[in-house]
Amino acid sequence: MKVTVVGFWHAYPEVGEATSGYLLEHNDTKLLLDCGSGVLSCVQQYCDVNDLDGIVLSHYHHDHFADVGPFQYARIINKGMGKNKKEFTIYGHQEDTASFNKLAYKDLVNSYAYEEGKPLEIGPFTFTFKKTHHPVPCYAMKVECEERAIVYTADSSYFEELADFARGSDLVIAECSGYKNDHVGQYGHMNSKDVGKLARVSDVRQMVLSHLPHHGNHAKLKNEVEEEYSGEVTIAKSGLAFIL
Ligand SMILES: [Zn+2]
Ligand SMILES: [Zn+2]
């Protein structure tokens, strides 16, 4: 499978970029993991929107789902031009019913509620979910395909079960919202020290730092994670792709 960073910013996108969004592909199945602001525009650098099968959402904060509405409009416009090729489904949790109920749109977008502890198969991918520690209900996700596993932490402060969930995976896309002296845990986020601990405890092969802060030099985040962890650490940037 292949995963491409579409957007990596925390909270809001900087010029020409996007907040959380990762394009997951295997053969003809193409999904977005999260769909924050700027993602619909940026994903078109890597994929025709009409080739997408759907979006899997971690939670309903704007930096993870703001572009759902624009996607619905893309479906209606492309239908008018006869370009919609596939069914399109948005997967989300149902703990915030008002937000979940906005995912489906006319007969153009389906919605599906995933649940923790219940594996979900989408094309060649098997998803499992783990509730994180965040001010609103949010789920980390593990994607398995042909004996490879990617874990996306979504938004969370550090907790041991998150490391258990990530254990042994080939690639972890971890939120890293602050430098080691930034006290982001109180807001339900991880700093570089937390991410380093997650990497070390879960013994993963490779870490990608994402959901990056708008201050400081991101290269420092990598150095700080490497104080805790000796594996490979990469800082997310637009278009960065991994093939597993
Ligand atoms: Zn959030
Ligand atoms: Zn976020």
TrEMBL record:
UniProt keywords, alphabetically: Zinc
Domain Metallo-beta-lactamase, chain residue ranges per copy: 18-211
Highest taxon in the source lineage: Bacteria
Signal sequence, renumbered to the chain: none
Record InterPro entries: Metallo-B-lactamas, RibonucZ/Hydroxyglut_hydro
Family matches, as Pfam families: Lactamase_B
Name of this protein: MBL fold metallo-hydrolase
